[in-house]
Design a protein that fits this description.
The chain has 406 residues and is α/β, with parallel strands linked by helices. It has a domain at 63-212 and 303-402: Rossmann fold. It has helices at residues 3-20, 23-44, 46-55, 110-116, 138-155, 173-184, 207-211, 219-226, 231-241, 243-256, 261-274, 282-293, 297-300, 332-336, 358-361, 363-379, and strands spanning 63-69, 72-77, 89-92, 121-125, 167-171, 192-195, 304-305, 308-309, 319-324, 347-352, 398-402. The strands form two sheets. It has a nine-stranded mixed beta sheet, with helices on both faces. Strands 7-8 form a two-stranded antiparallel ribbon.
Length: 406
């Protein structure tokens, strides 16, 4: 037999064996080969992954500091074109972590979505409290710089628009603070948007509510010892709420997507924010835990900032409630709990199948959820003869549910 003949015979024999192989085995072999190819793609992408780890940037939307006091800054984001709507938006961020989560990356930026809708956008960056700031209270934040920021923005309106109250949007703890401000100064807020904001602390759907119970947590002893609430304490609490995802799930997902530059860049952006922790002023943390988590004083009508009582019934402006169905930090029922306590007749709810952070950075949220939310605000930006008369298109008690995987 010649060499050529032997080769041809061997090839025919191999083809015959493949034809006789069960289809399940063929599929299994194909899956193995596919995974091998993906493994080598991931391996070969390592230099690019390292480059992205260095080059990934966050909070890149250009902004100017227009007002500052101590560590607090009011940012005004630059627009490429004049604003379409005469009433600007003020984002009140939380005192936890950094505010750039609302402007993480251009395609995952809540700030960008409101700019695209035609709004002039401002954001409060509370900064990092020092040891000397441990005496700051909720009153200092809400009736201090937040009040100053609202007054500053109102004065910046075009002459023909008059001195108009801005739209106020609060995220997480910042939503609680925005609610307090609106309850104290209802005439200074055009609309109130609450984004995953804890309001009714009697809802026990979150581990945070259980951990903060006075039977489990002595906040007085804690703050008396540390002065400020340390950043490491907050970080350990958040990681412990979902340890499988925090320590295993996200890293497996990263490995699976190493050959996708966009996913890798997002991973590094999120890792930077998740680990960019800051402390909370001690007296503010003490007050937040004792009055709200342990006393539920806001919905009980018992919360006072200085001499003023925060009466939710005084909130009569249009209200938009934005929640995440899989939020393990702030249960949707906690945000929705504001409904029966406020005086507004124009309240709308929107929810998305996401987590607490996925609500602001998730792909599905930015594809469908945020266009709806920003459109609601555009509909409520018509010039009104009175501050809190509902716009022509309203949705009293309407529930818009959007689903997604993030």
């Amino acid at each position: 037999m010649t060499a050529t003949g032997g080769t041809a015979t061997t090839a025919r024999s191999g083809l015959s064996q493949l034809r006789d192989t069960p289809s399940g085995a063929l599929h299994g072999l194909k899956a193995v080969l596919t995974e091998q190819q993906r493994f080598w793609r991931r391996t070969l992408s390592l230099p690019r992954v390292l480059e992205l780890a260095y080059k990934t940037r966050v909070g890149t939307t250009p902004a100017d500091v227009v007002l500052s006091k101590g560590t607090h800054r009011l940012l005004r984001y630059r627009r490429q074109t004049p604003a379409v709507h005469p009433v600007p938006v003020l984002f009140c961020y939380a005192l936890i972590n950094r505010a750039y989560i609302l402007d993480l990356q251009p395609d995952k930026s809540v700030v960008q979505r409101y700019l695209e809708q035609g709004f002039d956008v401002y954001l409060i960056d509370w900064g990092v409290p020092s040891d000397a700031d441990h005496t700051l209270t909720l009153e200092d934040y809400v009736c201090g710089f937040l009040k100053d920021a609202v007054a500053f923005i109102s004065r910046q309106q075009r002459p023909r628009d008059g001195d108009q109250a801005p739209h106020l949007l609060g995220y997480c703890m910042g939503g609680t603070m925005a609610t307090l401000f609106t309850a104290l100064y209802p005439e200074r807020v055009r609309t109130l948007t609450l984004l995953a904001a804890p309001i009714d602390f009697g809802v026990r759907d979150s581990l945070l509510n259980l951990w903060a119970d006075r039977m489990c947590f002595d906040v007085d002893a804690f703050i008396d010892t540390y002065g400020n609430c340390p950043a490491w304490f907050l970080q350990s609490c958040f990681l412990s709420m979902n340890p499988i995802q925090s320590f295993l799930g996200k890293n497996i997902a990263f490995y699976e997507q190493m050959d996708d530059p966009r996913s890798v860049s997002h991973y590094f952006a999120m890792e930077r924010w998740l680990n960019d922790n800051i402390p909370i002023a001690g007296e503010t943390f003490r007050e937040f835990v004792k009055a709200l988590y342990q006393g539920n004083a806001l919905v009980r009508g018992e919360l006072r900032l200085g001499a003023q009582r925060a009466d939710l019934g005084r909130i009569t402006c249009p209200v938009l409630l934005l929640t995440a169905k899989n939020d393990n930090l702030v249960a949707p029922r906690s945000t929705e709990g504001i409904r029966r306590h406020i005086g507004s007749q124009d309240v709308r709810s929107m929810s998305v199948d996401a987590g607490h952070v996925g609500l602001v950075v998730g792909n599905k949220a930015h594809a469908a959820f945020w266009p709806q939310a920003t459109r609601w605000l555009a509909d409520h930006s018509l010039v009104m003869t009175a501050p809190h008369v509902p716009a022509a298109r309203t949705a009293v008690g309407m529930d818009l549910s959007l689903t997604g995987s993030e």
